[in-house]
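Our consortium's second objective concerns turning raw sequence data into structural hypotheses that experimental partners can test. To show how far this objective has progressed, the report includes one record in full. It was chosen at random from the queue rather than selected for favorable results. The single chain below, 1486 residues long, was entered without modification.
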Amino acid sequence: MADTAKDLPAPPGSTAEKLDEAKAAEHEIVKESRKGGAAAFEFDPKATPAQKAAQAKKAIPAELDLSKAKPQANATAVVSDLDGAPPADITTGNSTTNGTNGINGTNGTNGASAPKSPTTAMVNGHPKAGDGEWGRTGWSPRFGSLNEALGIDGAVTTDHQTWVESNLDDKFFGDWYHNTGIIAFACLSTWFITICGGGLGWICIIGGICATYYRTSIRRVRRNVRDDLNREMAKTRLESDVETLEWLNSFVLKFWPIYQPVMAATIINTVDGILAGATPAFLDSLSMTTFTLGTKPPRIEHVKTYPKTEDDIVEMDWSFSFNPNDTADLTSRQLKNKINPKIVLEVRVGKGIASTGIPIIVEDMAFSGTMKVKIKLQIPFPHIEKVDICFLGRPTFDYALKPLGGETLGFDIGFLPGLSTFIQEQIHGNLGPMLYAPNIFTLEIAKMLGGAPIDTCIGVLAVTIHNAQGLKNPDKFSGTPDPYTVLSINQRAELARTKIVHENANPRWNETKYLIISNLNDSLSLQLFDYNEIRKDKELGIASFPLDKLKEDAEQENVSVPVMSGGKNRGQVVCDFRFFPVMEGRTLEDGTKEPVPESNTGVVRFTISQAKDLDASKSLVGQLSPYANFLLNGKPVLKSKIMKRTNNPIWEESHEMLVTNRKACKLGVIIKDDKDYAEDPVVGKYQLKLTDLLEAKEKGNEWFNLIGVKTGRVKMSAQWKPVAIKGVMGGTGGYVTPIGVMRLHFQSAKELRNLETMGKSDPYVRVLLSGVEKAKSVTFENDLNPEWNEVLYVPVHSAKEKLSLEVMDQENLGKDRSLGAVELNLEEFIEEDAEGLFQVHADKRNRSEKLVLKGSAKGTLNFTAAFYPCLNVADPEEEEEEQKLKELEAEQNQADKKPESEKDAIDKANEAGPVGEMDKEFAAQKSPMSPTFTITSEDGEKKPAKVRLTPEELLKYESGLLIFKIIEGDFAHKDCYLEILMDDMYFPSYSTAKIRSKKMKFDEIGDAVVRELEFSQIKIRLREHGEHDEDDLLAKLSGNTLETLKQCLNNPTVLTLKGKDGEINKVKVSLKYIPLLMKLDPSESINNMGTLRVDILDAANLPSADRNGKSDPFCVFELDDKEVHKTKVQKKTLHPAWNEVFETKIASRTSAKFNVEIFDWDIGTKADFLAKTEIDLTTMEPFTPQTFVLKLKGKHGEDGKYGELRLRMVFKPDYVTRSRQASSTFHGTFAAPGKLVTGVAGAPLKVGGFAAGGISRGASFLKKNTFGRKSMSKERDSNGIMEEGDQDMDLPANRRPKSSGSAIRSTDGTIDEEPMEGTSGKRTALSPNAAYGGSPHGRSRSTSSQLSVPGVIGGGPDSGTARIRLVSATGFPPSANVQIRVRPVDKTKDCFKSKTIKSASGEPEWNESFSVQCTADQQFKIFAKDNHLIRDEELGEGLFVVDDTGSGQDTIVHVGEGRVTLSTSFQAADVGSVSPKAKRGLLRRG
């Protein structure tokens, strides 16, 4: 019964029902809070506090969970894996067997062998301060003042409330209308009582009630008015006045007796630890015996606030002072209990028992100054991003220093003449570059609260020092200087230096230095020195570059920085500054962060925390003085501090190093015992690969057993920060070999957001991999429901990466705007089998995902996604490099004696300069020529078997990943980009860094997907910055991908690009090919796209539409609902013979909708429909001319007596280049919906008997041979291939696609014709066997039909000169100032502008001629404008092609309401054909 009652619903109105409603409301509040970005939690009522804390801890942002480290400088010299120091003697440890503690493999902190801590903590030989020992801090923590003389008594004033105010809700009084209402009520009520005969008593009662209410309400009004006035006056005071903080000073006065001892104890313990490691060899010890700041706390004098700042900025000026010796306001009792500030440093001279301590005393410190504080706020916790502080002027300070004699006999050296001033200037000189305005010191509060070190790397700065000009030596008698440059941050520690150029006041260095930057608020100092062999080098001057300029533009080139010395200009230095920030994952709408992008280059933060149970058998006293050497690839690069007399040292030191090849990088440590006068013995060492160390940290394993000793463990970890360094450094440029590719088929989008005020959005899709754009589709203009039907391939590197599909609105001015995004989880597609091989995921199911933008969904993206892995191919170069590394390690392990110790190597490196300087020759020698990198795994891990293929076998795979390494180049231009395009892609697969000099070293690696290697085309072009316009191209080179790959496979090859004016550009590249386990979709094959040529022969038995029983028929051909060609009108016939020809680009045969409609032409009325039919392009064999007799149908597709149409068509496969899609014009755009790729060109127009609009060719193309051009000679470039535009567009017979059939040649050289299915063997009114041009009626052929040759396929268009003469125009307004302009449709500049003519008859005449270099199928656009001084008005535009038939007839072009008469002709250049053997790769080996 109890269980049954428990399951029953709660009765209405019961307590249980109310509790359920309350829980539902609480859940809804939590849900809304999470949507708004707040951290809201729902706890189980029965959960323990520990469980609730664990649940809340999961919501802490990942970026706040970082390792702690002590603050250091804001930039460091680069320690890199490209250094050429000799490797140390290191045996690589086994992270599987040695990565745990103890025999049983327990964790380092919980192992049974963990040492027990002593009962009393000791620091530097003294009891730990603050741990029951407060004598060194001045006093123990306590409440209240020491002299009990200060106190604040105050009474809290009581707000006397009326009865009405305490019992009436606030909303019923306090506003002006309440006061007006009560006055009106009092008047009306007293009047009403008087009318009714009421007495004075009633009036008094009503008056008392109204007076009480009015008093209560008017108090509220006055209080509000006073509050508003105070607020406004406070804002005014903030801008001009300062405010005191006596409340804060009062609080500090009470808090100081509690906090000062704790703070002093912390300082003593920290400083003692530092002094222990910094004790010189000739001293026994250094220790801080006393530290106290006295009983009088610091004081805030005043604060000035700047209210008119940005919403996320708080700016204040704080004036403070610390004057403990100001006793003017102290009583005698306060003076008696006063403790002065004192710091005592004890220096023990001697050794052991024979040592004595010498105290050095600093006391009576005083300090005052004004500091500017700027706080940057943020939305996420802790809501303060950073704090910038700086002194507005030099602070004043005083002290008493007694280095000898102690407290009794000590003498203050500040009384010595000039010494106090000298010390103060030294202090100001060190603090000035860091803290004095305009220099600022930044505290990253958010990172510090999360435990992140404040010196953490934010990026790498590449400084290229080109030269200096006009250097002047301050000493006139020193002669010509021998200059070199030292790089530092704010003139602090040296980070790098250049070579010395002897006796040259205009030196040229051309050196690139790399600095790891942790703050962009400092200045980079370039100190120029004059080298001297004997005496000290003399400073020539300092050039300063503010790093905050890199926030706006990360690349500053040819910056001329003045060299200043003593306020005078001493020359200038020219540098390039390039800042490469640390790559971070994007923050998504829900607040989560995407994984960091994969990169093979970056900065590693290597931390050696501590060691335990070190082997002290080699020490006579049983205690070591250990220090650690940091190893990078077996080379000692840095040395830690020395920890005196301990076998369990705690270093907690971290160093950041630049790594150019993460997978080949090794990190390690050598621990040695410091011996003053003997060689330091090794007490342990360990080394492992960086990738293994990162994986160990993810698994929580940070302890490793030392190698070569009996006992000992070391705790170390690494943090990886990827940095993509392009264009300036040899190496990988951050490239990681992909594991496969994602195939994304973008079909369409529906109901997109409209961000435009006028018109509609211009959408395109871009693919982001971990926040980095990898591919994008073409743009559909002015369309909220675009039909892309475009396939993009994106290489991926890990299942942990995030793939974002974002629809963007393209903007001509400003940045493109997001219309929403879809997130893809790659783990859904990437899976491994039992052997570790990635599996194909080819389930191309249709997906319809909502586009999310800032938490709201609008619009739908329709697409499919699939994953195709790369074949696990063995790389011979990789294996050779690994074998060399193993042999080198074996030699090192067998070496009995090293030429020099690691300590000597470090000392020599420190004397020579910062470790990590990269020599250009060494980098060039060591940089791998192959764009692949070693893939490693832990020992014992099962590796998937690799497939070993010969180059011939490798190139048999149809689809694959083409990896190219661009090594260097010699160009005729600079300030441009080198791009690589594949096949029909409109956007480049890869674009290099900006070419800043004519001789450029790249060492950049990229990749591109090859769909059909046999027919693939690769294009390399040199382009200026700007849109993808032909006018921006400086040089280009095209060739067959297969032939190019054969030349450049693992072979650095020089390719030559010819420019517009014949200039030569050379680039050295190396290629690699990784096959993909992918079966190409037939819709993506080259057989599915190309050029369709249609010969419109004739028709028979058409319906009659006129009274005379005849018709005036003409044909309109439509491709995907876009008109592509319209024939001439044949008058008064039911059996017309057009004999015209046109060509058009077919982007996808499988999805193309190609049909023809026949109309009857009428004067002044709309044309009448006669018949139509659909044309199936999938049945056509490539390169095979076929004659089709098409049965015509009615308007609604019904069969009947509508006649027949005879066409001859041939399809030539070729790549259709993708381009921008506009809804208002068809030229150079996508085809309409239903195809996979883009590129159907041109709006249709038929002028003078020739099809125009960029999709047709003149009849002269029919005069060529069957599969080629006229027999003429043709020049080749130095690469042995044809330049683009000159290459033969027909494939040789052995290279034609065969999957869909090929042209069949008969023995007599003719081509067999195949009629359409259903007509074979049947005699119709149009006999396919009749002679070409044969007509059932006796009409003469049209101009184009007289030049047609049956069975001939047009070759590529001739190049030559088009001569155009502008004759006259008609139909324009008589008042118009008519000007005619002509331009090629693929250009943006006019090639001809006529004179402006105003004709009263509306028929202006020009008779102006001009010539244009073009191809025979070039389409031209003609504009008519009403020319005015201020603004021209458009009269219309039209399209035409030149007459290359030599007919001499005029061409009439419809331009708006008027018609323009042109006379055109074309003269072909002497261009010959190319044999199939001439199709080669890009270039021969250089």
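The partners drew two points from this record. The first helix runs from residue 2 to 7. The mean pLDDT is 74. Both points have been shared with the crystallography group to help prioritize constructs.
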